Predict the structure.
Amino acid sequence: MTSALGKALGGLVLALALASCDSSQTADAEWSMHGLDEMAQRFADIEQIDTSNVERLGLVFSHDLGTDRGQEATPIMVGGVLYLVSAYDVVQAVDATSGELLWEYDPQVRAASARGCCGPVSRGVAVDDGKVFVGALDGRLIALDAQSGTPVWEVQTIDQSDPLAENYTITGAPRVVGDLVLIGNGGAEFGARGFVTAYHADSGEQAWRFYTVPGEPGVPDNAASDSAMDMAADTWAGEWWKYGGGGTAWDAIEYDPELGLVYIGVGNGSPWNHQMRSDGKGDNLFLSSIVAVDAKTGEYRWHFQTTPAESWDYTATQNIILADLEIDGKLRKVLMQAPKNGFFYVLDRETGEFISGKPFVNVTWATGLDPKTGRPIEAPSARYYRTGEPSFQFPSSGGGHNWPPMAFSPDTGLVYIPAQDVGMPYAAADEEQVIGAYTSGVAMDGGGAMTKEQRDELYARMKGYLIAWDPVKQEQVWRVNQVAPFNGGVLATAGGLVFAGNTARELVAYDAANGEELWSFDAQTAVIAPPISYAIDGVQYIAVLSGWGGGWPLTGGVMALQAGKSVGPNRLLVFALDGEQTLPAFTPPEAPRRAIVSARPEDEAAIARGNKLYARYCLRCHGTGVVSAGAYPDLRASGVVPSEAFSAVVLGGALAPNGMPSFADKLTSGQLNDIRSFIEARSFEDLAQE
Ligand code: HEC
């Protein structure tokens, strides 16, 4: 306000105007739910930090998490306390302005830490009415007292008599819906049947369960979803229940209190390969769908399937954002999702009606969507199990967008998507799947599908982006090119800013209008978890967990090293204007670079068999091509491999408490020798000359 205008209006108005510029006028603001509030837009309506002053943003405190396993969680901030969940589901309560640790709760899940596709990660806790809810990797849902961290109740959400029980994990954040707390699960890569269960928040007593795929015909489910399951069962064939069928709901669960609906993002098929899962027949409801159920009873209301007859790990579990958008002159209650399959969807959230959908990244498996129904128009090559040829396609099983949440700013009207172009060859596995191994029905080594040239071309085309997307026009407004794919979740703020971390070890602030980079912070490790913002006593804070994890650093191999070494000390980092703290210096440890053998093993047949076995059992943790991106040991340089200890580790389970499973029930010692030959060959190829 100019002083001339101030004089004209009188001193009182001037004083008010000045006061409104003063930071003490920033109202307190919490981050009370996973997506901030029920709309789940991840838009913090706080404007103290804005495009004009964000360069003054600095660290006010950091809090060491004492692990280098992955960090994916959205912190919750209520009542001046940050509630975090770190690797292995360790929950911490931390003072949100000082960083003081108030309490810690460890659910002891290390014995189960070899389960799941993507390391012992968690995407968050829920906090409500004096309780903190956390899902544990081993399938438990635990309620803690928010003051003390003491357990109040605990339930095992997975039926332990289910022959597939060991394959389930929980990595998602519980959601509080009225007086219920909801949780799903993961595990469709290993053999699982997805479901979401609602428990009474005060007692832990079960209220309802919604299965996402039908069970074995004739066996009653005793679930509210029975009638929906009748409808779903008509879209399945074969003996899918032996593999579980999949459809695990491992991330998005959102709630519209006005409509009384809960929206469940449903995962991929188990196994991926539709031929193997369902005799190549039927759409397989509710795989890769958004399903709306009644919040009180769990009864089915509507569904929209993004990828019928799913065959590529194209989950629709990615975060769901609710918004009221003006479309064709009408205000519509919509929900938005950018699932793995590469299309951005806008649906009517009252009815599930398809409003629009367009590819937000390179999509080669489909040529578009039917404009009326939203059903994908598939490319003829996509169904690899039918053509008998590998289908080299975009997106890969990692998706055009994965779990790192996108955000929506009602100010700009744009959705900010952490997206990527990564392709892969899909080829049918040529042998029967093993339940409990990586049961995808797809050859994880690509079935030898790629020549070296194709591989180099693939790597060169891999890109990561932050995309600003107009959901009404269904078009990109701007795009930032990242150093590498698989970057961090997003926060949008009323200060006209977008915050997102990246695999190049930074947290970055961008101008929400045009993507210009305005500020960045060297976090010493990748930042893939989504930042949050809150305000206490007139100060706006930005908080984020740093640390690399999830599937990409484990499986990606050389591809996941594009941004350099991204594994480092994991922390809670909290920023405000004029923060002056610094992190202690950190130098990433050098990995040993010596071959473990002096000559390539001679038995080529053994190497070839070992390659297949490695792809099935070891690749998901030790990396494509036996190249580790740093999260787990690089076996090319492991002295254990040629030694006696190899068998003790791989068959004897010597390192099981650290997340290295025992394969005693899956591998013979002859097969182990084949794997050894393959690893030794890879070691010699890559490291002998150096
Ligand atoms: C679920 C993830 C996972 C899978 C699958 C897995 N590993 Fe591991 N592996 C680990 C982790 C984590 C460690 C490190 C354990 C530790 O820190 O003590 C490890 C360590 C090892 C080591 C010891 C390395 C060293 O130098 O200390 C060997 C050898 C090994 N794994 C071989 C294998 C083989 C062979 C397979 C496949 C048959 C396999 N692993 C599958 C996670 C896995």
About this structure: The chain has a mean pLDDT of 92. The radius of gyration is 25 Å.
